[in-house]
Amino acid sequence: MSTPAAAIPEGKKEACRTYIEQTKLLVALASTFLFAPAGLVAILKEKTSVGIGDGDLSLFVAAEVLFVLSVLAGYVGLGSVAGSQDAEEFDVFRTATRLASLVQFFLYVAGMVSFGYLAIRLVNSGGAG
């Protein structure tokens, strides 16, 4: 079901470009949180003296896993758009693209909520978890 490139509306092509940029931005945002473990290595080394409990560590790992899954879902969404472009359909509303985007977004939000909850919990407890 290939359409000649000249017959594809410019709006569809622009929608694909916009989708790709938005997805790349969300991937970049989620990726920045993947560097958090490097910053916590020193703290985790002294976790008992700082007062970080096992529940806090579990919550931190859960947030990191959610961010990693968000990044992976973003790549799936980008792959879906690439498939649409290859077929010269430029369809950002196809089911695979929409599902990957929704999964990416909600995993990112869940990661942010988990990470925010952990941060608030640690700040309010003075580090004693």
List strands and helices in order, with pairings.
Blueprint: H1 10-32, H2 36-45, H3 47-50, H4 54-86, H5 95-125
Helix pairs in contact: 1-4, 1-5, 4-5
Tell me about this structure.
The protein is mostly helical and about 130 residues long. The chain has one domain. It has helices at about 10-30, 35-45, 45-50, 55-85, 95-125. Helix 1 packs antiparallel against helix 4 (about 55-85), helix 1 (about 10-30) runs parallel beside helix 5 (about 95-125) and helix 4 runs antiparallel to helix 5. It is rod-shaped, with a radius of gyration of 20 Å.
User: Could you give the count of β-strands?
Assistant: 0
Distance between the termini: 58 Å
The value of Rg in angstroms is: 20 Å
The percentage helix is over 70%
The shape, in one word, is: rod-shaped
What is the count of distinct domains? 1
Order of secondary-structure elements: HHHHH
Contiguous helical run count: 5
Brief descriptors of the model:
129 residues, mainly alpha, 78% helix, rod-shaped
Concise synopsis of the structure shown:
This protein has one domain.
